[in-house]
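Let us work through a complete example step by step.
Step 1: write down the sequence.
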Amino acid sequence: MYVIHSTILYLNDEIMEKKERHARVIGKILLVLGILTLVLTSFSFNFVHFAEGFLIDHFDDRSFDIGIFTLNHPPFGLLYLIPIFYMSIAIIEIGIGLGLLAQKRWARISALFLSLFLLFHFPLGTALGVYIIYALLDDKAVDQISMDKT
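Step 2: predict the structure and record it as tokens.
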């Protein structure tokens, strides 16, 4: 009876260790993805700044009719919202990656929400999102992270 019980405990510890490795791998992937997104976002800020200057130089003297409204100066500054959005996503990815590396419970829940967002970025984001859902929604992984510090 003792042999069976110790074998079950050994297998349980082995499974927990495997799931812990999954969480660490996901944390590292999210960290690299977040840093890469921050670097690319800095380039896109420069591109938007160049594009805004180009568009203002060429279209500044024209008025645009949108329905019943006439815009004398189009709102080119709204182009900055795109890099700001992706920069905020990158900061969130870095935070979740650091939380997963530290085995925080809130990071697991946040990574699951982030994985739902990643599912729409076909094909690599979809694969990463499915992997995150698979690795973090397993019952043993939930128990293991719940037992760790919060």
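Step 3: interpret the result. The mean pLDDT is 78.
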